Amino acid sequence: MSYLYIATGLAVLLSAIRDREKTLVALKIAGKKFTAILPAFLMMLILVSIALFIVPDTMISHYLGDESKLTGILWAVSLGSLTLMPGFVAYPLCGILLTKGVSYMVLAAFTTTLMMVGILTFPVEKEFFGVKVTIIRNVISFFIALFIALVIGICFGEL
Amino acid sequence: MKLQKKGLRLLIITAYFIFLIISFLLGFSPGKEIGGNFFSFSIEMLKILPCAFILIGLFEVWVKKEKVERHLGREAGFVAYVWVILLAGTTVGGLYVAFPVAYSLHHKGAKLSVVFSYIGAAAICRIPMTIFEASFMGLRFSFIRLMVSVPLVIVSSIWLGNYLEKRNYKIMAGK
Lengths: 159, 175
Description:
The structure holds 2 protein chains of 2 kinds. Chain A is mainly alpha-helical. Chain A has 8 helices and no strands. The longest helix of chain A has about 35 residues. Chain A is globular, with a radius of gyration of 19 Å. By secondary structure, chain B is mostly helical. In chain B, helix 4 packs parallel to helix 6 and helix 6 packs antiparallel against helix 8. The relative contact order of chain B is 0.08. The model of chain B has no long low-confidence stretch (mean pLDDT about 85). At the A-B interface, helix 1, helix 2, helix 5, helix 6 and helix 7 of A face helix 1, helix 2, helix 5, helix 6 and helix 7 of B.
């Protein structure tokens, strides 16, 4: 976590040395984006705080967690393919799940299908590229996500 | 419609906090537990979010989208893929933003394989998103994910592009 502070501090410093005006604009953009996303964040935190009360940690780790890797990944890819969630919400949520004991591998499967496979965006995609190409692209993306999860699992020693 | 949604959101947020306050006052334990969840997650978010947004702000100021778009014009062989991935990195929003951009790229003369690389990369390599990912999941996670997914996206896009070009596929809306 501390490297994040160091990296941010250094980036701001370097930017300010190059151009103070631009750095100020950057900070303003940061503030604007932050306040724009804040209501959505608040809603997510509210939903998650209630959801995690109703669905206990043990159940989450049962479905997404260590007990069965295969079912965990299957749940993750199904959820990821079906739901639509901005990354600004998805990654913080993954951060929470990570502290609840969900593995990196399962979260990789979830986030990658979330970003690449869109069952709900199918009507939009089809308008641009046609049904056939849309299906092919989504199927390929699905397998890419599974492969990424596998590699992450191996690299993090979870397999 | 949009105003209604905002109003509903405000209502939920207000009701939620009133519920929390009453729970704490009356010692209603499920409410207290939910409040505790909310508080600890909020602290966790506040530790990370400001840094992530400052980095994203700096990125937007120093890297202009037009610059990347200009370079994409001289697409020569493999370099086009590098540029298209950089362009995708600067895309804002999700896939629904990428589709129209990809569509217009194709109309400006980009190869099908480049177009599909763009869509794939827009899904997985957006820089603000990756900053966010690394903040919450760690640099190592993001690094491995990018290293694995980018080549896969390019290879599968080349395959799909060639396959479709062989069959004389034309991108046509709604077909």
